Amino acid sequence: MIIDTLIKGIQEKDNPTVVGLDTSFDYLPEEMRAGVADSKGAAEAIFAFNKKLIDAVADVVPAVKVQIAYYEMYGVEGLRAFAQTLQYAKAQGLIVITDAKRNDIGATAECYAKAFLGETPVGGSSLRAFDSDFLTVNGYLGSDSIKPFLSKAPNGEKGIFVLVKTSNRSSGELQDMKLENGKTVYEYMGALVEEWGSTLVGECGYSCVGAVVGATHPAQAEILRREMPHTFFLIPGYGAQGGTANDLKVCFKADGTGGIVNSSRGILCAYRQDRYKGMPFDAAARQACLDMKSDLNAVIKG
Amino acid sequence: MIIDTLIKGIQEKDNPTVVGLDTSFDYLPEEMRAGVADSKGAAEAIFAFNKKLIDAVADVVPAVKVQIAYYEMYGVEGLRAFAQTLQYAKAQGLIVITDAKRNDIGATAECYAKAFLGETPVGGSSLRAFDSDFLTVNGYLGSDSIKPFLSKAPNGEKGIFVLVKTSNRSSGELQDMKLENGKTVYEYMGALVEEWGSTLVGECGYSCVGAVVGATHPAQAEILRREMPHTFFLIPGYGAQGGTANDLKVCFKADGTGGIVNSSRGILCAYRQDRYKGMPFDAAARQACLDMKSDLNAVIKG
Questions:
Q1: Count of domains in chain B?
Q2: Rounded CA separation B102/B112 (Å)
Q3: Is position B302 within any domain?
């Protein structure tokens, strides 16, 4: 199952870090931005940046998370760079998570599932449009909106991460609301996630239906870790958003497993930090991944 | 404000129908599918179908809703057809709703907002990637995930529809859960929507922050209509999903305003129904829009 592959990758590289390729054009070094005049040029520059970055980090991290919004804003050309980035990362042996938070009713979720986790039949053959190992999804619509994503991989060849407790400041507005039964909305969503994943648990003990749990809300994360023993966490919010290794320790079990931590700006823009001053962007990104590994492991394994 | 334009369009055409361009390749007449060998061919055929359909309905409906999932599954070529469809519908004077149910934390929602409602600066000029009048969004992440969409149009030049009570069977799993305060999750989301729209109310009395409320759940829709006096409803679920004109009557106020009703398959595939047998697909679609108009008005104005 894909969750076993992800966890094996984390263990082999001894690094529970996923690099977030939220590659804003502004993050590129000036020489890569110079002379770009249109969306095609911007998209090509973004892919060139991603490629060098992937080359630099592929042996020190197990996975990348590619945030599609940063590509959609460049239209068709941006989405070409998105597809190329997924393909390139996969070819370098990385697990590829598409962060798209897709959601819709069954028939339409089926289309999204084809786009990101399955294939679209066309003219006697088929197309893997934006082929990913994992996709983030939003569960507000309930089970019949989630099932199509799982149906693409009945044996766990693909996985999803469902939003449970997100890292943003306003996430509590709905997610922290208490239900009549005393549980919060995020706990209830967490219980649905455990249920959706119950037939897709790998050898590692975690299922192919993971949860997004932000590093910025440790009290809630601690509850979720306890209530979701078979669910692996995708943990955003470390670094630029304010979450620290200490904050997210609660997402992990005593054996050091339980989640993978995303960093985007902290790695993509490492070359702008005093700490990595004078280093090329890719070398700085690599060093930032190694530093993040030390920072996380000291706490998670400590 | 864009909500005034939409409501004016409904009144001028005397038709609260929005045509859902969930154009599955399978929906195309056989002669348009013949010989298609790749995603480029499929996407071109889909756009050709949409174009003829838009030509046929542009004088009888005020708006189209384009469901992006059906295009994403054909990759970059599919998204080109999606962009072309938006542009073509707009050029024919139709209001364009992109149904994408996007959602993310603030910085990322900002990218989606640029892609669908705003513009992306590039090389001294700017790009309107998938320019729409309205975008559907998912509010599970709370206020700071919604604000970026509104910031693109501080004077209501653009609008959003937030998922409140969706048309699918499982929507109740989370949305119908009762909160401690006695309200349901969908009512709570409805209250947030009213608040988000409070500074964007047009001359029509409705705000540019609308709500998605399914025709398939009349009991819940009735409550929402009462609790959301300034919110305009985008109403899916009519026809193929099982909702009838009688079911969705509760989404409208006594003056006959309050919502716009989507039909996708019922219009796109009208030519396959016995009722429209022998008609070309575009003529059948036009007639289906007129028949839907009669069906809806008889109940809404009755």
A1: 1
A2: 7
A3: no
Domain of A104, CATH number, reads 3.20.20.70
For residue B111, tell me if it sits in a domain: yes
- B4-49, pLDDT tens digit by residue? 999 999 999 999 999 999 999 999 999 999 999 999 999 999 999 9
| Chain-chain contact of A74 with B129 (C-beta, under 8 angstroms) | yes
Question: Crossing angle of helices A185-196/A143-151, nearest 10°?
Answer: 30
Residues of A in contact with B108 (CB under 8 A): 22, 67, 69-70
Cα separation of B172 and B184, whole Å?
Answer: 10
Chain B residues closer than 8 Å to A179 by CB = 177-180
Whole-angstrom Cα distance, residue A62 to residue A54?
Answer: 11
Q: Tell me which residues of chain B, numbers 174 to 233, contact chain A at a CB-CB cutoff of 8 Å.
A: 174-175, 177-180, 185, 188-189, 192
Looking at residue A59, its amino acid is D
Rounded distance, CA B228 to CA B194, Å?
6
Catalytic residue list contains A90: no
**Using CA atoms, how far apart are residues A268 and A266, in angstroms rounded to an integer?**
6
Domain housing B280? 2-297
Return the bridge partners of B213, or none.
B165
Q: What is the DSSP string of A131-181?
A: --SEEEE--TT-HHHHHHHHHT-TTSSSEEEEEEE-SSGGGHHHHTPBBTT
Spatial CA neighbour of B156 closest among B104, B199, B120, B99: B199
Distance from CA of B205 to the nearest CA of A (A): 27
Listed in sequence order, the residues at least 6 apart from A22 whose beta carbon sits closer than 8 Å to its beta carbon are A67, A69, A70, A264, A265, A268, B107, B108
State chain B's mean pLDDT as an integer: 97
Would you call B115 an interface residue with chain A, using a CB distance cutoff of 8 Å?
Answer: yes
Chain B residue with minimal CA distance to A131? B75
**Is the CB of A80 less than 8 angstroms away from the CB of B80?**
no
| Residue among B41, B76, B142 whose CB faces A170 most closely | B142
As a whole number, mean pLDDT of residues A231-249 equals: 93
Does residue A302 register a pLDDT over 80?
A: no
Of A8, A101, A183, A249, which is the active-site residue? A101
Region B103-132 average pLDDT: 96
Q: Cα–Cα distance between B197 and B219 in angstroms, integer?
A: 24
Say if B279 falls within a structural domain.
yes
Distance CA B163, CA A30 (A): 41
Residue B107 has pLDDT above 90, yes or no: yes
d(CA A240, CA A73): 22
Q: Which of A24, A47, A111 to mutate to test the interface with B (most CBs of B within 10 A)?
A: A111
Pairwise CB contact (< 8 Å): A170 & B112: no
**Length reported for chain A:** 302
Q: Are A111 and A76 in contact (CB under 8 A)?
A: no
Helical H runs in chain A? 2-12, 30-33, 39-57, 69-72, 75-91, 106-116, 143-151, 172-175, 185-196, 218-227, 245-248, 265-268, 281-300
Is ipTM > 0.90 here?
yes
- Please tell me whether residue B21 adopts helix, strand or coil conformation: coil
Per-residue b or e along A110-130, where b marks 16 or more CB atoms closer than 10 Å to that residue's CB = bbbbbbbbbbbebeeeebbbb
